[in-house]
# Entry
Amino acid sequence: MLSAPIARGDDVEEMKQTLAAMEKTISDLKTRIAVLEDEKAEVKVAAPPAPSRAHAAPSKSEPSKSSPPAPALTTPAVVEASPGAAGTGSKVRDSDGFQELQQAAPRPENRPLDPKLKGFVLIPGTDTMFKIGGSARVDAIADFEDNGNPNQFVPSTIPVGNQAGYSGDERSTIHGKGTRISLEIRRPTEQFGNLRIYNENDFFGDSTSNTMTFRVRHFYGQAWNFLIGQTFSGFMNPDAWPDVIDYQGPVGIINRRQAQIRYTQPLWDDCGEGQAYISLEYPESDLLDASLPANSEARSSTPDVVIGGRWEGDLGNIQLAGIGRSLNFDSDTGADGSTMGWGVSLSGAWHITEKDDLLAQLAYGEGIARYVNDFNGNSLDAVFVGGDLEAVPIFAPMVGYTHRWSEHFRSTVAASWVMADLPAGVNALTPETTASIGANLVWQPTSSFRMGLEYLYGTKETYDGTDGDANRLNFVVRYDLVK
# Structure
């Protein structure tokens, strides 16, 4: 009969150690299982994370391709910026002026003035964000005499001599034509960088009546630094616009929104940001009809071409832009004419101190009247004289200064004028020189609400030396829909 071998003492001790190790392994596995069960429970009860705005490759650990539940529409979250959605913010400082031009202006790589993209809402399940903006505005205007335009201060329309309205009595009006509505859409794309589509409208389609006529101010898209659509001309610097209240603005400032194709190339990003751009823009030969032969028709043979460069930094911005134009007309009688227009504009804004800003512009050229604020619409690009079409020389300087008295109060003084060197033979009452000066006081107790009172004085002198002037008080209340 065989008997079991008797374990020796060292074997028994070895078995005890093995059992102890197995018990420890089992204990560790139980602890790990408990941790995994807790993590699984947390995932089930946790709110679904906000979808990323940047395009990224899907994680291999994703259990399915189904999208997470969309967040409740009653509690949309404010979107924070990320490199995929907006990149870094623009180096231009938002002056938060009464005219609110800077928000609409295109920027290199669609960099926003506000890197946090306040007010944007992410569309669930997509990388697309949108923002509905705008402002409600009411102007209460008192004119000391008839200045030719009840809703905007336009010195070139001041009646003089025997023109209708000359020596007209004081008048007043209230209108809401400056109310704006905007829609901005942003989306990152793999092929074209950050995409931005911007649309803005107001009710100044008819500027001389109180009718609220809907008008498109901006409608453009930009991706990969290519812009297509309608917005500020590249010859204009919206960051140099002073904080004036009247909707028209200084007489001599370059002010034009039109259809265009533009490309912007960033140059450097240290010691401020540099950029260069070229823009092909909507052409229009705005010729003095009274000087043209009978049955003539103005035409444009090529787009207006704008080439410019900018610098932006903590101290402000400066822009140099040049424009070339082709001005032409044809007539049924066989006479025709053509000439070249050109112009140069130097403009910028300088933050002298935290409380003081200086803004200026100096523009000169021939055949650029359509781009100058007060002469636009006066058909002064060129005049047909002595059988030749001559581009009219224009000189248009502007200067503005803003001082912040306190956190909620500020004032701006702005002065500007336009001088045209008219050739002989034009109508005696053709505007030759206009000027405007204004001063205001703005109270802005919150980021969304502001009101201001502005005094404006303007003068006009015609080709034959006849002159006139106008005075206005404008009280404006504006409330921003999203701020």
Summary: Residues 108-480 form a domain with the Porin fold (CATH 2.40.160.10).
